[in-house]
Amino acid sequence: MNYTKFSTEQITDWLKKNLTEKRYLHSLGTAQCARDLARKFGQDEEKAYIAGLLHDCAKCFPDNKLFEIISKNLKVDPIETMSNKTLHAPVGAYMAQTEFGVEDEEIISSIRWHTLGKLNMTTFEKIIFLADKIEPLTRDKDYLLEAKRYIEEENNLDKAMFESYKETIKSLVERELRICPLTIDIYNHLLNVN
Predict the structure, then answer these.
(1) Do 97 and 6 meet the contact criterion of CB atoms below 8 Å apart?
(2) Is residue 144 part of a domain?
(3) Are 56 and 30 within 8 A, CB to CB?
(4) N or C: which end of the chain has fewer CB within 10 A?
């Protein structure tokens, strides 16, 4: 099935031109990791690969461009604008639709929520979220070891998500950065699930 109006080669060419080299490699790593996780958890591998490729398509846009696209085209809760580091997610979902012709709602949603996450994510959304955090090409191999273990040994995406949120919150506290209330809500929700 075609999930975009572009070929994989056209998408990777666009990414190579519009992302830094490290971000481009990260996108390739996320796509491959997403495909592997999709296979493991019974999801559409091609769809996961496309979502992984496109998840950071807006990551290298300057902040003023991100804010401009959001203000003109999107409804984003002001709480999500606490950190400029997460603005590329809603803009990336918008770009997937408008620039790459993606119509699949699950791909769009997985790109939209790959940074902050949301309550009650689907298996597919969890796969893209986690692939972004654990892909091996640019991510620290020791980071999120517990999350990887829960995926590999227990096939438990919820426990892996919990570990990811736990590490994210620790990192934000250590760097004295703001924590989005949604992050705390999801952490508390996952704490109750596990």
Answers:
(1) no
(2) no
(3) yes
(4) N
The tens-digit pLDDT sequence of the chain (194 residues) is: 789 999 999 999 999 999 999 999 999 999 999 999 999 999 999 999 999 999 999 999 999 999 999 999 999 998 888 888 899 999 999 999 999 999 999 999 999 999 999 999 999 999 999 999 999 999 988 778 889 999 999 999 999 999 999 999 999 999 999 899 999 999 999 998 87
**Distance of alpha carbon 91 from alpha carbon 58, whole angstroms:** 6
Is the CB of residue 89 less than 8 Å from the CB of residue 112?
yes
pTM reported for the whole predicted model? 0.95
Domain residue limits at 88 = 8-139
Q: Is residue 184 domain-resident?
A: no
Distances (CA, A) of 119 to 23, 157, 158, 164, 172: 27, 14, 11, 14, 20
* Single-letter amino acid code for the residue at 43: Q
Most distant CA pair in the chain, distance: 45
The answer to whether position 119 is within a domain reads yes
122: CATH: 1.10.3210.10
Phi, psi of 183 (to 5 degrees): -60, -45
Query: How many structural domains comprise the chain?
Result: 1
174 in a structural domain = no
